[in-house]
Structure formats: C-alpha cells, structure tokens
Amino acid sequence: MNAEELRRVGEFCQTPFYVFDERELADQVSRIREVLPPRTNICFAMKANPFVVGPISKLVDRLEACSTGEVRICQAAGVDPSQIVVSGVAKDPALMRELIAGDAGIGHFTCESRLQFDMLSGLARETHTHIDLLLRLSNGSQFGMDASTIMKLAAACANDPYVTIRGIQYFTGTQKTSSKRIAREVAKLDRFVAEVGRAYGCPLAEMEYGAGLPVEYFERDPKAVRQTELEPALALSRALTDTSFSGQVTIELGRRIAATCGTYVTRVVDAKQIDGQNVAIVDGGMHQITYYGHAMAMKQPPCRALTPHGDPDLRWTVCGSLCTTNDILVKQMPLGDLAVGDLVAFDKAGAYCMTEGMSLFLSRDLPAIVWRDRAGKLTLLRDRIETAPLNSVRPL
Fold first, then answer.
1. Which of 76, 179, 203, 252 could form an SS bridge with 210, CB 3.0 to 4.6 Å?
2. What is the mean pLDDT of the chain?
3. CA-CA distance, 269 to 311, in Å (whole number)?
4. Which domain holds residue 249?
5. Ordered DSSP codes for 145-169
6. Among its keywords, does the record have Transcription regulation (predicted)?
7. How many CB atoms lie within 10 A of CB 249?
8. What is the CATH number of the domain that holds 143?
C-alpha cells in the first residue's frame, strides 16, 4: 500500500493499527502458484495470520489449524471443513471427539505420535467414522515421529476400515534460504513416502512439505531480495518436478503467503535529540511488531515515514511506548524531519507480527486491525482492545 492509502486508513481508525490488503494477498498467492509445478496444492498455516482465514480460504486449497482456538476461528469464518487440516502437537481430546463423533467433515488430521494415533483411530472406530491421517515425519525436533514408528503404524492399520493413512507431512523449519537443503529434503520425503506406501500395502495419496520459503525483511536491494526469496522457490519447484511421487503434492506455507499483505502503522508522540541523536517515540512498540531475526534493532526492517518532509536523509532512532530500553524499533533510519503526529509504517507485517509480540506488557491496548478489500473499502476487523482487565485481579 502506498503512503496516501495508509494515511487514509489513519483517518479511518486510531493508531497504532495493522492493515491487511486483499489485493496484495491474492497477488502473492498467484505469484507462488506461478512458480510451483502445476496441480501443486497450497496449504496456508493460519498461525501466520488468523485474521485473513476467510478471504484466503478462497485462494488456497487448505488451511492448517493447530489448536482449538484456530479451529474455532476457521468455523466462525465459514471455512469449508473439508479444507481444514487439524494439526498440533497437543491435540485436545474433547475437540477431537467433537470433530470426529460429530462428523464435522474435517478434511484431514495430522498425527504426531503413537498416542495421538491411538486417540484418533480409537475415536474413529468408536463412532464408526472414517478419518484421513497425515503422519508427521520428525526432522529430529520434538515434532512428529521417527521413521520406524511411522512404518509400524502404517503396517498395523493397512486394512483398517475407519482410518486411511493418506500421506506423510514433513516440516523442518522456517526462513530456509538454502536451495540445496530444500532439494535434499524433498528427495528424502519422496523416498520415504514410497517406503511407507510399501509398508501400508498401497501407494500413499499425498505428501505434504512445509517448505519454509523465506521472506527478506531487512534487505533493500531488489537483486538481493530476489536472490533470497526467488531462488529457494525455484529450487523447490525443480525438486518437486524431479520426484517420482505421482500423488497429490501439497506445500504448506504461512509467512511467505501473508507477510507482504500487512502493514503496521504507528504515530509519533514525541520527538527529541539526545546527545545529537534524533529519537522519535511512537504510540506502538516492540510488543506489537516483531520480525523474524530482528533483535534490538540490529537490522533495519522495512520502515518509512508516511508524511515525509525536510531533509530525506535525516536519520532517526524510533522507539516504542514501553518502559524498557529494549523497545527500539529501528536505529538510524533516514525518515526525514519527523514531528509529533507523523505516521510511521512498517511493511511486510502480515505474518506473525500481530500475534508474536508480548502484547500484554504494560497493559497497553491491542491495536486495531483493518481489512482493505480489492476495491479499497476499509473494514474494521477488530477495534482496539483494553488489556488492563486481563492483567488485573479485580474488575475494572
């Protein structure tokens, strides 16, 4: 969104706020599809941005929900249950019973352990309900199961009338910039899916790979951004083309889909010089905007003044409203001659930024969240929310 569009949102609601742009969200999904091989499905990891699940469900093939809350958000947004993959390392037994016994039409369940397998398959048999499972292969972390456990489970339920092992899910991390690593992981998954199919007695129908395609937050050179973001995506496409797997391939993405659709806007409430350094205090802060790999403003995130004036090379350190020396959003950024009331925007804030911060610290209000549709219409998805009642032992 350009400066004029963001200033218009600033007239629509009080700062600080997040605004998510539908056109950019749709364009980003299209850009991703253009790179991937034909017929590759896309699964959106909704933890990246739960506020866009309704619109994005029309753009992607699936959404991954990793908690009871995320399932409820999908249901409230009217997401087709068949699009939902219920995942998570700590599945709520009550929710699993509700979804399976109630025949909610959930598309798939992931399975992270033998205990989860016993719970899910037991509920299916008890309620005479058929379920499709994606068995999660661990990469050595706490998530998923090792290869031997998966092979045993596949062999054990080869003829189960209520449980179908649909495929294997494999996720190894985020912000992966190594093309060679992506190629190795896809090849490994390809081989393992074939092995499990042999143990299961028939080829598996699907393999799902959490590609972790990167978003470049701190580099401004277009060539460097292309190198960071496009090359791994092209490597992924080549690796998928080279697989022997003939079933459905699904790529799970969160950050790469949602990051560019969001902007965080905050307002300057104080501007001063300290020992010759320009310092701006804004009404937001580090509790509301976080970037992967950004700590103590050691790197410069995508930040711009929306009302630039004066010397464009004038540098500022922008600090938030928290009473901690850690609340530094950006150091020595050329923003012009900032003044009280000016708006400062942080781009690529559409993934995780609005949920990962320590939002209850100092009992400051949660920011408003605005949706801008393709026609430019603004909708308030969430108004400012007081957090003081959440931090108080007595009603306020």
1. 252
2. 96
3. 20
4. 87-253
5. B-HHHHHHHHHHTTT-SSEEEEEEE
6. no
7. 22
8. 3.20.20.10
User: Which pLDDT value is given to residue 376?
Assistant: 97
Q: What is the arithmetic mean of pLDDT over 104-123?
A: 96
44 falls within a domain: no
Q: Does residue 375 fall inside a structural domain?
A: yes
What type of residue is 202? C
For the chain, the domain total comes to 2
252-289 confidence digits (pLDDT tens): 999 999 999 999 999 999 999 999 999 999 999 999 99
At 259, the amino acid letter reads: A
pLDDT at 328 over 70: yes
Same domain for 266 and 212, yes or no, is no
Q: What is the mean pLDDT of the segment spanning 177-197?
A: 97
Q: Give percent of the chain with pLDDT exceeding 70.
A: 99
Q: Is residue 204 in a domain?
A: yes
Do 183 and 311 lie in one domain? The reply is: no
Q: Is 396 domain-assigned?
A: no
Q: What is the pTM for the complete model shown?
A: 0.95
Looking at the fold, whether 271 and 213 belong to one and the same domain comes out as: no
Q: Quick one: 139 exposed, middle or buried, by C-beta within 10 A (0-12, 13-18, 19+)?
A: middle
The alpha carbon dihedral of 144, 147, 148, 150 has a sign of positive
DSSP assignment of 282-351 = ES--TTT---TT--TTSS--SEEESS--S-TT-EEEEE-SSSSTT-EEEEEEE--S--TT-EEEE-S-SS
Tokens 């007239």, residue located: 11
Residue-by-residue DSSP string for 24-84: HHHHHHHHHHHHSPTT-EEEEEGGG-GGGHHHHTTTSSEEEE-SHHHHHHHHHTT--GGGE
- Final residue of a structural domain among 187, 219, 253: 253
Residue 216: the pLDDT is 95
Tell me, yes or no, whether 186 and 304 share the same domain: no
